[in-house]
Each structure stands twice: as structure tokens, then as C-alpha cells.
Write a structure and sequence with these properties.
- This protein starts with a strand and ends with a helix.
- The strands form three sheets. An eight-stranded mixed beta sheet has the order 1-2-3-10-7-6-4-5, sandwiched between helices. A three-stranded antiparallel beta sheet has the order 11-12-13.
- It is about 45% helix and about 20% strand.
- Helix 4 links the parallel strand 6 and strand 7.
- By secondary structure, the chain is an alpha/beta fold.
- The site of nicotinamide-adenine-dinucleotide has 30 residues, from helix 2, helix 4, helix 5, strand 9 and helix 6.
- The site of glycine has 5 residues, from loops.
């Protein structure tokens, strides 16, 4: 399980055909350099970052690399979800060919979930797959997207419609990168953190209630604990159901069905992903009460913790038809039914089928 060595925590991800380790550190690059000594003997990793993270965080990383004799080449991609598309991927392929990249090359993906998803997809498809290391810099990417190998880009018809399951060689999480993260992005990450507690861990939920002030102040000790806990939960789920074929990985989508519908109906402009998920979790909990899965107290408790963390809990107003149209395009549709994640109790959820019409009706109640 979780091991502690000096200032480094390690969470192993043990899959059937691939194993890797998530290192969780605070303000430390040595462990990354040590790892690269083995896997990147030419000392020329190929670093992908974006126009926000590059200027902000790359100088320090490059300085550490230089001290250890590494000479990375780097490419700065444009920032933002609107660039998470095949045009950006093409740009990445062009750069890799210019660099003479081959199957022995190692890509380093330095940024948030958008950069990690794009870079992972480039790595998955260039020469049918090259090695990559995730170095996530947002809370969302540290607790969720850098772990588990879902990589891909958006299509005009929906988010993440083009992609692959392609696991990283290694994940290096440095919580000190979160110091520069804008408040709203940080809160979006906390929505995913609360999700893990609701789906899997009562004690962690109580910890999030108790330590709220310190967590909102980004206390580094609390941050390391949170990131470790979420990565451990995610690693466990991914180990048991790597490609979402056995159902368990679906529980990670708690709150996401309604959340994605909100994001889509507001053109991905008004709400961040975590904000959509927060409102989606409230609705999923209330629908769980209506469908007899949990008590009203539990749904109220979930609403309270999200509101206390400054996340939106009130649903925007859309017609039944708008909700239905949006829900119908969800990736979790199986035939005429959605696979929906219901709350049973804090720390336990279940997946059951429900029609998008019924969910839309409920959202208009
Ligand atoms: P993001 O990558 O867009 O990052 C948010 C903003 O913060 C960006 O402007 C980014 O450049 C900036 N930023 C990043 N690190 C920073 C730092 N340390 N300091 C200051 N600014 C920083 O958004 P995100 O929330 O990290 O990721 C969302 C994306 O992740 C979505 O595309 C979503 O689909 C994807 N995602 C994927 C998975 C998965 O399993 N693959 C899981 C969850 C989310
Ligand atoms: N973020 C959902 C998953 O990785 O399955």
C-alpha cells in the first residue's frame, strides 16, 4: 500500500500488463531525476508544457535538470480546454519528428489535466506508443487525471471523445506546484477530492470536514495527505478495473453525468469541470434519495460539505428537453439507459441503469 520514505510517498499502481509508481513529494525534483537516470540514458527527455505553466514553473525544473546533467528539449503548447483537440496533437507529432523521437524516447508532461490528456494521447499514438511521465501541476491532475491512463482529446460533439487507455511510465506529483494555482482551479480540484471520500472512504470524508480551514489555506502537510489518499483510492479502482469493463471504474464518474450535461449546456464557458461535478454530485445524491438508495440526511450532508468548500450547489435552469438532449450524449449511455452512480451511504456508492428522460424529469422537479 502506501509507503513513506523520508519526504517521499509512493503509491504503486499494479496492473495486469504494466506497473508503475506514483511519487508524491513537496518541493523536490531529485526523485524524478533519479528515475530518469534509468529510463532516459541519453539525458534528453522531451518536455511538453503549456503557455501558463511553462513561464511560471519551468525555470526551476530546468535548473534542477541542468544540475543533474539533463538537457531536455521542450515544446510549449497553447493553454486551455479549447486547444484539447487533434490540431494540437498534430503539432506535437510534428515536433516529435523534428526531435527525431523514437520508441526509446521519454516524454515529460508538465501541466494540468488538459496538457496531460493531450500529451498522453500523443505518447499513445506516436510510433504506436512511446514512454511518458506525468508531472501534474493542478489539484485535478494530481488527484485524478495523471493516474489511470485515460488520455485523449475533445471532439466538437463532446469532451474526450477521441482517446485511449495508455498508462504512464511514472507519475511525479509535487504538491508545491499547487501554490501558484488560481483559487477557482484549486476549488475545482477539491470537488474531485470530496468525490473520492463520498464514493469510497467515510474516514476521509470526516477528515475533509474537520480540516477544512487548513485545506482551504493549502497547508502542505494536509495537501500531501489528500493527494496520497486520492491516488491510493484511484490506483485501487484502476487496478481492479483498468478499462472500465467490470463496472468499478464507473464509480469515479459520481456526479459527472449531470456535471458534464451542465458543462455542455453552458458551452464549457460558465463553469469549470469541478464546479459542474459539485452540482452534479448534489443532484446525484438527491436522486439517490428519490430512488430509495440513501436517506435525505446524507444528501443534505453532501450538499453542506460542498457549499462549505465554496463550491456551487444550485442547479442552473434548463428545460427538460435541454437536459434530456445533453444527457443522451453521455458516454455512459448503454442502449436507452444511462449507467448512473447512486449514493448508498457516505463511503459507498452503486451503479444502476436509469433513462435520461427520468433524470431530466428529476432535474426539472
Ligand atoms: P487545466 O489543465 O486546464 O488547468 C487549469 C488552468 O490552470 C490552466 O490554465 C493551466 O495552465 C493552469 N495551471 C496548471 N497548473 C498551474 C499551476 N501550478 N499554477 C498556475 N496555473 C496552473 O485543467 P485541469 O482541471 O487540471 O484538468 C481538466 C482536464 O482534465 C479536462 O480536460 C478533463 O477532461 C481532464 N480530466 C481527465 C481525467 C483523466 O482521467 N484522464 C480525469 C479528470 C479530468
Ligand atoms: N476520471 C475518471 C477515470 O479516470 O476513470
Amino acid at each position: 500500500m502506501l509507503t513513506v520514505s523520508a519526504k517521499r510517498y509512493q503509491v504503486p499502481v499494479k496492473l495486469k500488463h504494466h506497473r508503475y509508481v506514483i511519487d508524491i513529494v513537496s518541493d523536490e525534483t531529485q526523485s524524478l531525476c533519479d528515475f530518469l537516470e534509468t529510463y532516459c540514458p541519453d539525458k534528453k527527455p522531451l518536455l511538453l508544457t503549456n503557455s501558463v505553466v511553462g513561464p511560471l514553473l519551468m525555470p526551476k525544473l530546468l535548473k534542477s535538470f541542468k544540475k543533474q546533467g539533463f538537457k531536455p528539449e521542450y515544446l510549449i503548447l497553447p493553454d486551455g480546454e479549447r486547444h484539447k483537440n487533434l490540431a494540437t496533437v498534430q503539432h506535437g507529432y510534428d515536433w516529435l519528428t523534428e526531435q527525431g523521437a523514437n520508441r526509446h524516447s521519454v516524454m515529460l508532461l508538465f501541466g494540468g489535466g488538459v496538457l496531460g490528456d493531450i500529451g498522453g494521447f500523443i505518447a499513445a499514438t506516436y510510433m504506436r506508443g512511446i514512454k511518458y511521465v506525468q508531472i501534474p501541476t493542478t489539484l485535478v491532475s494530481q488527484v485524478d487525471s495523471s493516474v489511470g491512463g485515460k488520455v485523449g482529446v475533445d471532439h466538437q460533439e463532446g469532451k474526450n471523445l477521441v482517446g485511449a487507455f495508455y498508462q504512464p511510465l511514472h507519475v511525479h506529483i509535487d504538491v508545491s506546484y499547487l501554490n501558484t494555482l488560481p483559487e477557482r482551479e484549486y476549488l475545482c480540484g477539491l470537488a474531485e477530492v470530496i468525490k473520492y471520500a463520498v464514493i469510497k472512504d467515510t474516514k476521509f470524508y470526516e477528515f475533509l470536514q474537520k480540516e477544512r480551514i487548513g485545506i482551504l489555506q493549502r497547508d502542505p502537510v494536509l495537501l500531501e495527505k489528500i493527494v496520497k489518499k486520492c491516488c491510493t483510492i484511484k490506483a485501487g479502482v484502476v487496478t481492479r478495473d483498468e478499462k472500465e469493463t467490470r463496472g468499478e471504474r464507473m464509480i469515479l464518474n459520481f456526479g459527472h453525468t449531470v456535471g458534464h450535461a451542465i458543462e455542455k449546456l453552458t458551452d464549457y464557458r460558465k463553469y469549470g469541470h469541478g464546479e459542474g461535478v459539485a452540482m452534479g454530485m448534489v443532484q446525484a445524491a438527491e436522486l439517490s434519495v428519490a430512488e430509495g438508495h440513501c436517506t435525505r440526511e446524507i444528501a443534505l450532508d453532501i450538499t453542506d460539505i460542498l457549499a462549505a468548500y465554496g463550491l456551487p450547489v444550485k442547479l442552473p435552469n434548463f428545460s427538460k428537453r435541454q437536459w434530456e438532449q445533453s444527457l443522451k450524449h453521455d458516454k455512459k449511455m448503454r442502449g436507452s439507459h444511462l449507467q448512473f452512480v447512486f449514493v448508498e451511504s457516505i463511503g459507498q456508492v452503486s451503479v444502476a441503469s436509469i433513462t435520461p428522460q427520468k433524470v431530466a424529469q428529476f432535474l426539472r422537479r
